Structure formats: structure tokens, C-alpha cells
Amino acid sequence: MTQKYADGKFGEYGGQYVPEVLMPAIEELTDAYERYVLENEDGFMDEFRARLRDFGGRPTPTQYAERLSERYDREVYLKREDLLHGGAHKLNNALGQVLLAKYMGKERIVAETGAGQHGTATAMAAAHLDMPCEIYMGERDINRQRPNVFRMRLNGSAVNPVTTGRGTLKEAISETMRDWATNVEDTHYVIGSIVGPHPFPAMVRDFQAVISEEARRQLDEQTGGLPDAVLACAGGGSNTMGTFANFVDDDGVELYAVEAGGSSLEVDEEEGVAPNSASLSTGEEGVLHGARTKVLQDSDGQIMESHSVSAGLDYAGVGPELARLVDDGRVQAVNVGDVSALEGFHRLSQLEGIIPALETAHAFGYLEEHSEELGETIVVNVSGRGDKDLETVIEETEKRDIENAPSMAEFSGGI
Ligand SMILES: *Cc1c(COP(=O)(O)O)cnc(C)c1O
């Protein structure tokens, strides 16, 4: 378990940029994080790990990928977070935070969700631990993500539509913050990535670090050593930091955070929209959701809307720790566009029998384009499975005429 940066500052990044009313809650949470997570008070981490095992299905395998290894003439290993309960790495964090809320004596959970993945993970954890839970979700997202709305409600959570602004993730976060500020006494806010004010970035990293703790051990068991390169896709950056955490001190291991290059890295300022979500590669220092970090913004410092074909990477900021590690040269910030990700999606499905999340597919797009630069042994984190993305993939595959895809046209009418 890494305990670095316990003060919440990652160089100039991080910090606690929150309204005064939230400071008592932030201080209470920081105290709980230090006692229960860092010091394992009352056996918190033991219970967390036991629940990850029995409810979550951990450990997930680190699997040798035969056909990818053959294709690239490298040894490629897959960390299978797609096999975690719920189909993505998000449960590691949601379960950790809901359990922590219980230890803190909180009686109610709130969370925000964009595409619905973090909301469903939080709803599952809340049902498992018998905590009432309310999820804020933009109205537009609710209409785009019906199945996830039903999943949350099936697990007993209330889904509160947010109608302000464009009705997406940004407004949902503001609304959840407002709820938390009003109900700090009995409520915990489960943030979905390594973003937000301290202690969230460090705490979410520690809950996700189980990924690299297992991967390091499992790879050593199979190869007797460390990998040369570790790849993970980066939205807010929680699966990335979880996959990197236990390799950061190994100088020989190159770490690659693969961002969504979207349709272009060029920004049209007039539009106020970045056609990508590559905040590590193209963002500037700014404050977003309570932390100083790299943010997509225009020359006046206005936060821009981001874009990616994958909803889970579509975020204008990124975790402050990742921003710092990139500035330090420890993590390479790279990106691939929508088309490369879609091709990666089909390649992994065809070669390995694993349908990945569109977020994850970005890492495989990068592997395809740069395998010869990545050394002999490569670990790729499969952050989630792609069942949730089938409709998008069918639509986008047709629209863009993706080369390595099976013909979708003849089936799409019936779906
Ligand atoms: C949410 C999500 C991501 C992006 O979130 P991070 O915090 O960057 O990990 C990546 N992959 C999957 C499968 C997701 O659901």
C-alpha cells in the first residue's frame, strides 16, 4: 500500500479548493482516511479486502494473451478487471468508500454519475452494505443510459435527475456537492475517480491499488520478474493509478496513461469544445472540482466541454497525482483517437475473446500503434467489459467504416 503524498499535495497539484461549508466534512473524512485506510484501525482494511474477495470476486487474473503476444512478438499480459463484479474496476473504490462511510457512522450515501458506471457500482456497494443511496444524474444522461438507470434502481438507489445546464456530469457533480454540503452530518459523498479535494485522490488510489498489488505478484509468479511496460486508459485516472501504484518505485517499468484523443487534438476555441479528453497531454493548470490539476480550458481559463467516443473517458480534468507524475516524467501521457479505440475494441474481441469497454479499448489502440517501443513484457489493464457499449460500437462502427469490424449493417436494424 503506497502512502505517498498523504498531505494531499502532489507538487503544485491537488489541495482542497472547496466552499467553507464543506471544510468540516473534508476534515472529518481526512481523519477517517488516515485512521481506517492508512492505519487499518478496527481492521477496516481487512474487512475491505474480505468483501472485495467474497462480494467482488477478487483476485482477478493476470492472463497471458496468446494471440496478442504472437501478433506483436512480445509477451502481453492482461489484468482482468473486467471480471470484477459489475464488470469494471469501479467497484474497488465504491465498496471502499461505502464501507468507510459505515465506519464513520454515516447513514446515507450520495454520488454523481455521468454514463452511469460509477452510479451502478455505488448502488451495488450500498445495497450490499445496507446503506440508503441517492445518485445524481443529468437528465440528458438519464435518457442516454436507460439500462444503468434501471440497474441503480433495481439495487434500491434513488436516481435524481439534474436538469440544470446541459444535464450532464458537470452539473450532476455540482448538485451532489450541494446535497453533501446540506447534509454533511449524516451523509458521505462517494466520488468516482482520483479527482476532487484531498483526501479523495489519495484515498481512491489506495482503494484501487489492489489492481497493481495483485498484478505485480501474479506476473512475478508467471515470469519471475517485472514488466517492461504497463498500460492503462485514463479518464479521471482511477484505474490508471490503481494499475501504476505498486510499480511507481520500479524505475525499469515504463508507465503509459492512454487518454482519449477523440476526433482531434486541435481545439476550436470559438466552439468552446475540445474534440478530445486528453487533459494530461493538452490541458493547462487550473482548478476543477476542488483540486488543482491539468484541465481542458480555453485561453481565458474557461473549462471546455470534452469529447470521446467512450463516455467514461469524457472528462475535462484528470487526477492531480497523475498530472504530477506526468510532469515528473515518471508517467508517459499518450493518446489515441476514437477510430483507433474502435479498432482496438474489435481486435481484442476477435483475437482474445474478450469484449472490452470502449475506455479500455484505447489502451489496445496504443498497443497496436506502438508495440515495438514497449519492451519485451507488457501488462495492459482491462479496466472493464464492453457489454454496456454495444449499441455505441455498432452505431460508430457503421458510421466510421472501421476496417477490422464484422459487418454490422445487416444486424443493426433489429437491435
Ligand atoms: C469509468 C471507467 C474508466 C475511466 O475512469 P478512470 O477513473 O480513469 O479509471 C475506464 N474504464 C472503465 C471500464 C470505466 O468504467
Characterization of the model:
The chain is an alpha/beta fold. The protein folds into two domains: 23-55 and 90-204, 3-Layer(aba) Sandwich (Rossmann fold); 62-86 and 209-401, Rossmann fold (3-Layer(aba) Sandwich), CATH 3.40.50. It is 42% helix and 17% strand. The strands form four sheets. The protein has a six-stranded mixed sheet with strand order 3-4-14-9-10-13, with helices on both faces. It has a four-stranded parallel sheet with strand order 7-6-5-8, sandwiched between helices. A two-stranded antiparallel ribbon has the order 1-2. β11 and β12 form a beta hairpin. α2 (44-54) crosses α4 (90-103), α4 (90-103) crosses α5 (117-128) and α10 (210-223) packs across α11. Bound molecules: pyridoxal-5'-phosphate. Pyridoxal-5'-phosphate binds at residues 88, 90, 117, 193, 233-240, 312-313, 357, 359-360, 383-384. GO terms for molecular function: tryptophan synthase activity. Belongs to the TrpB family. Tetramer of two alpha and two beta chains. Keywords: Amino-acid biosynthesis, Aromatic amino acid biosynthesis, Lyase, Pyridoxal phosphate, Tryptophan biosynthesis. Pathway: Amino-acid biosynthesis; L-tryptophan biosynthesis; L-tryptophan from chorismate: step 5/5.
